[in-house]
Design a protein that fits this description.
Protein name: Glycosyl transferase
InterPro entries: Glyco_trans_2-like, Nucleotide-diphossugar_trans
Number of helices: 8
Organism: Solitalea longa
Mean pLDDT: 88
Low-confidence stretches: 255-259
Structural class: alpha/beta
Shape: globular
CATH topology: Spore Coat Polysaccharide Biosynthesis Protein SpsA, Chain A
GO molecular function: hexosyltransferase activity
Keywords: Membrane, Transferase, Transmembrane, Transmembrane helix
CATH class: Alpha Beta
């Protein structure tokens, strides 16, 4: 475990960037460099490693002077690790940028806070990348012009890594959800927020794949339960029918292009 305070104190808000990693030796360095090379000075960087068995920790230690806090210990899953990161965060805002994910460019955070709008949540778009960091296009679900807690009825319209929330409004993750707790967390943050700003920026480069993609059936069950909790059964069923129709339409368009 390692801690230090390397934040420049000024009028600009402090952003706590939290990276969760386990056996991420192939991707962790790109994430670290993306964070520490930001032009924005007031970043508190936190890395929570789940007791990796590869060279992840050695890579983290190479950048130790740029990291406010890191730990390496076993956990009860990704959301337990994310809660550990939240408990260490002291910034005005928090953002999760997990192993393999990156900021879109070196000026992203500076651009987010350039408006000085003092919003509760800042959000934007996401570019999907592959293992070699090649861009695959923008995320299929696009952020709406105006976002509120009801927006997620049509799916998680904002990528978790493009969602910056005021720390005082950010609860711990519900560990009853093993795959889709990020949706529950984002909706909870949105419900607690008064001012939500669309940055009109691509905030992150998001590594394709992930837990929810690898466990689709459980993810769908959890998402349905979360949506039902917030929006009610009838609304969720009608929304899922619309989502299904949208998915089929997009698939048919893709097949036409290849024929």
């Amino acid at each position: 475990m390692y801690t230090q305070n390397n934040i420049i104190k000024n009028q600009s808000p402090v952003l706590s960037v939290i990276t969760i990693v386990y056996n991420g030796e192939h991707f962790i360095e790109r994430t670290i460099k993306s964070v520490i090379n930001q032009s924005y000075a007031n970043i508190e960087y936190i890395i929570v490693d789940g007791a990796s068995k590869d060279s992840t920790l050695s890579i983290v230690k190479n950048f130790e002077k740029h990291i406010a806090f890191w730990s390496s210990e076993s956990d009860k899953g990704i959301y337990d690790a994310m809660n550990k990161g939240l408990k260490q965060a002291t910034g005005d805002y928090v953002l999760f940028m997990n192993a393999g994910d990156q900021f879109y460019d070196t000026e992203t955070v500076e651009k987010v806070f350039a408006s000085n709008s003092n919003a509760d949540i800042y959000y934007g778009d996401a570019l999907i990348v592959d293992d070699e960091n090649n861009g695959l296009g923008l995320r299929r679900l696009r952020p709406p012009q105006q976002l509120n807690w009801k927006s997620f009825r049509m799916g998680m319209l904002v990528c978790h890594q493009s969602f910056i929330v005021r720390r005082s409004l950010a609860p711990l993750y519900n560990l009853n959800y093993k795959i889709a707790a990020d949706i529950d967390w984002c909706i909870s943050c949105l419900k607690a927020s008064s001012k939500i700003e669309n940055t009109q920026l691509i905030i992150c480069r998001y590594l394709s794949g992930g837990t929810s993609w690898q466990n689709q059936k459980r993810a769908l069950r959890e998402r349905f339960d979360i949506m039902k909790k917030y929006y009610g059964v009838i609304t969720v069923i009608s929304s899922h029918l619309a989502i299904t129709a949208r998915f089929i339409g997009q698939k048919l368009k893709g097949e036409k292009r290849t024929n």
